[in-house]
Amino acid sequence: MQKKRESLRASIIESIKGRKRPQSYSTGKTHPTGTLIASYNVHKCVGTDGRFDPERISRVIHEIDADVMALQEADSRFGERTGLLDLHRLERETGLVPVPVSGALKAHGWHGNVILFKQGKLRDVHQANLPGLEPRGALIAEIELARGGTLRVIAAHLGLLRRSRAQQARMIIDLMNSRGEKTPTILLGDLNEWRLGDRSSLNTFQSAFGPLPAAVPSFPAGLPMLALDRIMANRRGLVSTVEVHASPLARIASDHLPIKAMVSLEAAHAEIADEEPSQKSAGGLS
Questions:
Q1: pLDDT at site 94
Q2: For residue 127, which phi and psi values (nearest 5 degrees)?
Q3: Could you give the dihedral angle defined by the CA atoms of residues 120, 179, 167 and 15, in that order, rounded to the nearest 10 degrees?
Q4: Which of 86, 236, 247, 258 is the most buried (most CB within 10 A)?
C-alpha cells in the first residue's frame, strides 16, 4: 500500500511539473474534417459539488456535440443498475442513438458503459465481462460512419486494482484479435491507469495500438493531474491529438473531464498507402 501511495504521489508531482492549461473548448456544430469521438466518465451524474444532476451531464454532452461518444458510470452502481440519463431526450435533441445492449432491463449500458452515435449504421455489437474483483465490462460496436467506412469502437472502464487492470487489458486485446485487426479500431474510456513503465497495464495495449499517445490529464475535473481517460487507435493517422473538454460546466458536472479527438479514416488509409512502398522496397533489399 505504501508503494502504491508513493507511485501515485510521484505521478501527480510529475504531472504538475509538465502540466499545461487544458485546451480551450469549442461548441461548434460542424466537423468538416472528420468524425468527432469523445469519452466521458459521468460519475453517476454526481458533480464535484456533490450534487446529483443528470441535466448538467446532458448539457456537457450537448457542448461536445460528438458524432460517437462513450460514457462510463452512466448507470446506478447497485441493485438493478438503473440508467441515470434521459437518453430519449438526448436522442431527440442531439441525434445521438444509444447502442443497444442485451440483458439490461433498466440500465443504459453494459456495466455502466454506453456508446452513443449519430448519422451512421450499427453493424455489430458485442458485450464482454472483464475479469477482476469488481464487476467491469467492455462494449464493442462496429459502426458504418455517415462519412463512409466502418469504425470499431471499444468502450471500457477498467478496475481500480492493478492486477485486475492487467487482466482486463489482456482480455481486451484478445477480443480485438479474435475479431480481426484489419478494421480501424478506437479504444476509449476510463482506463484508471496513472502509472507508466513496466508495471502499467497501458503497456499491454501497445501490441495492438502502438506507442501510446501523449497523456492528457482529465482527473480530477477541477484541477486535472492524472490521465485516467484515454483514446487510442490501431492505425497511425486515425485520430488527431486528444484534448480535454474543459468548459466551466464540465469542471463541476463530474469528477472527470471529457476527452475528445477527431477521427479520419481517410488519413489512416493514406498512412498505410505511404508505408507500403517502403515496405516493398525493404523487402526487395533483403
A1: 95
A2: -115, 135
A3: -50
A4: 258
Q: Which residue has the cell 482527473?
A: 219
Q: Can you list the domains of the chain with their CATH numbers?
A: 2-285 (3.60.10.10)
Confidence category of residue 79, pLDDT binned at 50, 70, 90: low
Q: How is residue 73 written as a grid cell?
A: 458510470
What is the C-alpha separation between 206 and 219, in angstroms, rounded? Answer: 23
Residue 260: strand pairing partners: 38, 243
pTM value surpassing 0.70: yes
